[in-house]
Automatic annotation (TrEMBL):
NCBIfam families: Clp_rel_HeadMat. Transmembrane segments: none annotated. One of its GO terms (cellular component) is endopeptidase Clp complex. GO terms for biological process: protein quality control for misfolded or incompletely synthesized proteins. Pfam families: CLP_protease. It comes from the Bacteria. This is ATP-dependent Clp protease proteolytic subunit. Belongs to the peptidase S14 family. Keywords: Cytoplasm, Hydrolase, Protease, Serine protease. The lineage of its organism: Bacteria, Pseudomonadati, Pseudomonadota, Alphaproteobacteria, Hyphomicrobiales. GO terms for molecular function: ATP-dependent peptidase activity; ATPase binding; serine-type endopeptidase activity. It comes from Devosia aurantiaca.
Length: 293
């Protein structure tokens, strides 16, 4: 569908979202979402070689990433906004999400910017990244790109009382996300809540139809960087495996130690200066598939 065939309508950015008083609980992206991002969106980058100095790129997980040393954080975004100053901002997103509460913090930082913000979903804005996308005064999305929304997903352990406490803790954050998605899209809150319950992936045209985006990106604005795609997929296997091990009852520290024992060190697949660099992490995909089955 051509861009001129779609109605373009920018909406006001919704209000601020709450952050937890305690960050002891982390709301994360499910391993299966990492898999879909690897299959459908890894390596998607803007076509333009030169980037303007008012562009913030988010081509990574949300929150600090143990495995690559990267990750998109509110602290980094705040520093970038200070450097840009009182000017319009473009935010380019291709992210499977990550730490939901870090995503909320980034959303709040962006919505406080004094000038218009244009968000471009280059590949995928899933989970926490979809919250960040809602900070845009204008949201553009690729025809083959996706916005994914779901309820807060956490890894919790304990008895039934602990589980009830965790559910009660998460409920206001799910409701806050419903409110933001509904306000930005113009959709009914009950519909948004159902889409979140169903863990919904919206294609470019569906996102526009439902009000989660305003217009399609031109097809020539995005490309697949094969080198970036290989790096994205490699480290994503490790991220997904870590979450699967935690889901099986290990702590994150234990999961990371087990993965490191199998192959390499944190960042080994991404940084040639790291001991073990160049190690083949691809064998972990078989272990991941076994755990998921």
């Amino acid at each position: 569908m051509a861009k001129h065939e779609l109605r373009v309508f920018a909406k006001a950015r919704p209000g601020a979202m709450p952050l937890p008083a305690s960050r002891a609980v982390s709301a994360l992206t499910k391993p299966q979402v990492f898999d879909k991002w690897s299959a459908d969106a890894a390596g998607i980058r803007p076509t333009a070689i030169e980037q303007g100095d008012n562009i913030i790129t988010m081509f990574d997980v949300i929150g600090e990433d143990f495995w690559s040393g990267g990750g998109i954080t509110a602290k980094k975004v705040s520093a970038q906004l200070r450097a840009i100053g009182d000017r319009p901002v473009e935010v380019q997103i291709n992210s499977p999400g990550g730490d939901m509460f870090e995503g909320i913090a980034i959303y709040n930082v962006l919505r406080e910017h004094s000038q218009p913000i244009t968000v471009k979903v280059m590949g995928m804005a899933a989970s926490a990244a979809s919250i960040i996308a809602m900070a845009g005064d204008t949201i553009e999305i690729g025809a083959a790109s996706f916005i994914m929304i779901h309820n807060c997903w956490v890894l919790a352990m304990g008895n039934r009382h602990d589980m009830r406490e965790t559910a009660d803790f998460l409920e206001p954050f799910d409701q806050a996300m419903v409110d933001v998605y509904a306000q930005r899209s113009g959709s009914e809150a009950a519909d948004v809540a159902k889409w979140m319950d169903d863990e919904t992936f919206m294609s470019g045209s569906m996102a526009i139809e439902r009000g989660f985006a305003d217009a399609l990106l031109n097809a020539d604005e995005v490309k697949v960087d094969e080198n970036a795609q290989a790096r994205d997929r490699q480290v994503n296997e490790v991220r997904a495996l870590e979450l699967e091990l935690v889901s099986a009852g290990h702590t994150r520290t234990e999961a990371r130690a087990r993965i490191n024992k199998i192959k390499g060190t944190p960042g080994a697949a991404l940084n040639e200066a790291t001991p073990g660099a160049g190690a083949d992490w691809s064998g972990l995909s078989g272990l991941l598939a076994t755990l998921q089955s």
